[in-house]
Amino acid sequence: MKVFFNLDLLNVLEQLVWDKLDNLLETQTEVCSCEKCRADIVALALNRLKPHYVATEKGEAISKALLLDTEQQARITIALLEAIKIVEANPRHEKE
C-alpha cells in the first residue's frame, strides 16, 4: 500500500471559518477570545462542516466563490455559534 502526502493541500473552509469567527467575536464581546477557546471553537465548527480541500490556486478560487453563497455562509455561522456555546460551557481554562 502506498501512502501519499501532498503538502500543497488546503482546506479553503478553514480560513473562512477563522475569518467569520473573528467577525462574530467582535459583536459577542462576552465570549472568551483567548487562543485556546478560539482554536476549540474553530475545531468544533470545522468538524461539523464539509471540508473543501483544494490543490491548486484555481481550485481555491472556485471553492471560495462557492463558499460565499448565502446558504453556505449560514451553515458556517450556525456551526460557529453552536461551537461557541459548547466552548463557553466547557472552556479548557478557568472561567473568569
Can you walk me through this structure?
The protein is mostly helical. It is 64% helix and 4% strand. It contains four helices and two strands; from the N terminus they run βααβαα. Strands 1-2 form a two-stranded antiparallel ribbon. Helix 1 (12-27) packs across helix 2 (35-48) and helix 2 (35-48) packs across helix 4. The model has no long low-confidence stretch (mean pLDDT 90).
Offer a concise description of the structure.
The protein is mainly alpha-helical. It has helices spanning 12-27, 35-48, 57-67, 70-89, and strands at residues 10-11, 53-54. Helices cover 64% and strands 4% of the residues.
Taken from the alpha-carbon principal axes, the silhouette is globular
In the sheet with the most strands, the strands line up as: 1-2
Spans of at least 5 consecutive residues with low confidence: none
Note the gap between the termini. 51 Å
Number of helices: 4
What is the number of strand segments? 2
Order of helices and strands: EHHEHH
Give the biggest beta sheet.
Answer: 2 strands, antiparallel
The radius of gyration over CA amounts to 15 Å
Specify the helix fraction band.
55-70%
Percent of sequence in beta strands: under 5%
Content-based structural category = mainly alpha
